[in-house]
C-alpha cells in the first residue's frame, strides 16, 4: 500500500483509516522513525507487544537473517532491527 501523507497544522502526519487498520494502530500506539538524508521510514514499535521468543544467535545465510532457537530469551523485533542497523552502518560509510 502506498499513500500520500499530509502534515496537519500541528506538524503531525495524518494516516488514512485504511493504513491505521492495516497496521493495527490506535491512539497511543508508538512508531519508530528511521530518518536519513533521503527519506523517513516509519514502523510500528513492536516491542510494546511484549513478544519475547527464545533464540541463541542470529546468523546471515545467503543474505537472510536466521534466528536459531535454543532457549535464550530475546525480543525478535529488536534483534532484527539491531541486525539491520548494523548492516546499514557497514554499508554506508559515515
Question: Brief description of this entry?
Answer:
This protein is an alpha+beta fold. The protein has helices spanning 17-22, 76-91, and strands spanning 6-7, 13-14, 31-36, 39-44, 53-54, 57-61, 64-68, 73-74. The protein contains 2 helices and 8 strands; from the N terminus they run E-E-H-E-E-E-E-E-E-H.
Q: Structural class per helix/strand content? A: alpha+beta
Q: What topology, given as strand order, has the largest sheet? A: 1-2
What order do the SSEs take from the amino end to the carboxyl end, as H and E? EEHEEEEEEH
Total discrete domains: 2
Q: Report mean pLDDT, rounded to a whole number.
A: 76
Termini gap? 32 Å
Total beta strand runs: 8
Give the oligomeric state.
Answer: single chain
Largest sheet, strands/sense/barrel: 2 strands, antiparallel
The best one-word shape is extended
Number of helices in the DSSP assignment: 2
Strand content: 25-35%
Helix fraction by DSSP (H/I, runs of at least 4):
10-25%
Amino acid at each position: 500500500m502506498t499513500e500520500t501523507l499530509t502534515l496537519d497544522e500541528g506538524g503531525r502526519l495524518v494516516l488514512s483509516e485504511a493504513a491505521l487498520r492495516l497496521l493495527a494502530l490506535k491512539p497511543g500506539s508508538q512508531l519508530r522513525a528511521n530518518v536519513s538524508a533521503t527519506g523517513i521510514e516509519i514502523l510500528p514499535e513492536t516491542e510494546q507487544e511484549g513478544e519475547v521468543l527464545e533464540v541463541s544467535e542470529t546468523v546471515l545465510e545467503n543474505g537472510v537473517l536466521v534466528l536459531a532457537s535454543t532457549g535464550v530469551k530475546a525480543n525478535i523485533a529488536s534483534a532484527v532491527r539491531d541486525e539491520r542497523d548494523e548492516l546499514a552502518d557497514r554499508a554506508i560509510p559515515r
